[in-house]
Amino acid sequence: MVENVRWGILGTSAIATKRVIPAMQQSALVTVLGIASRDLDKARWTADAAGIARAYGSYEALLADPEIEAVYIPRPNTLHLEWSLKALERGKHVLCEKPLAMNAAEAEVLAQAAARSGLVVEEGFAFVNHPQWDFLQATIASRQIGTVRSVHVLLAYNNFNPADLRNNPAEGGGALYDIGCYAIKACRLIFKDEPIRVTGLFDMDPNFGTDRLTSALLQFPQGHGTITVSTQAGPDTGGTHQQLGILGSRGWLSADFPFSHSTPSACHVALGDGSALGGLPTRVYPFPVVNQYQLQAERFSRLVRGLPARAWPLSHAEGNMRVLDALFRSQASKSWEMVSLPA
Questions:
Q1: Does 98 participate in catalysis according to the annotation?
Q2: What is the mean pLDDT of each run of 10 residues along the chain (343 residues)?
Q3: The CATH number of 131-289+322-338 is which of 3.30.360.10, 3.20.20.70, 3.30.70.260, 2.130.10.10?
Q4: This prediction's pTM
Q5: For the structural domain made of 5-127+294-310, what CATH number should be given?
Q6: Closest Cα to residue 322, out of 181, 217, 186?
Q7: Catalytic one among 18, 98, 185, 192?
Q8: Which of 14, 57, 71, 134 is deepest in the core (most CB within 10 A)?
């Protein structure tokens, strides 16, 4: 029998309490042992409500607990580097919410610290754990749609709450940081390459000061990635509107629920091969309900225990940040910007 990994949660954010913690508690190899807040009463209330044994009135107190082995960090984007480094200094494995940092320089600092520590550190993109992504990549590799020429990603949700961190530029808010990082990662995964240059068009909210609608074109060596993300568009159902389209030299793929599953749901991947007519698929592949946050926790815990599991190196997270950096430079220059190469 393999002993469960003992986890601590640095914060009581909605994504932690509504999505990640319940999923972790259903996971093999996972024990959620503690949760921290800057308010001890809030930590205790959250711990009691979630059935978590330990509550801490500071993040430092949780990190000082020698029985906590790994931490999940759902802090504001601007605090990801700081608390990831503090966790590593305390000998904790780190799963940090996306985006990993505010820029590529910060991501590189964390990658270097992780390498020195020998601990498991990853950026929390839960969607890559969903079986549909293995299927998409295997189908592309099989050449059923030929060579990938273009990837289209659309992600949107409606959020007009002035108290929400995602609407606060000082906390790393805005569409590109919050959901554009999904779209960029998807393009890079599908092309299995890095973009050469990018250009973006930003529509800013006059009150929040965040980008509420951003579209971008990513030039890859063999094709184009096109993304549109918005924090003020789509249905008002509390989740995200999502579309993924992959155009190949002799076919296409599309996914109807490719990214964030706020509520675990069934989904489908459609394939149009060389015999498809228009937008009608040749075949549709259904995927049953799975909890990708649960799969993420199980996979990460296997890595902590030295068991076979796929690892996502921080070099991939750094690559995402280099693209984000270039798009923010494009916002200022209003022109194409080259994506920097790894140091």
A1: yes
A2: 96 94 95 98 97 98 98 97 98 98 97 98 98 98 97 96 95 97 98 98 98 98 98 84 96 96 93 92 97 97 97 96 98 97 82
A3: 3.30.360.10
A4: 0.96
A5: 3.40.50.720
A6: 181
A7: 98
A8: 71
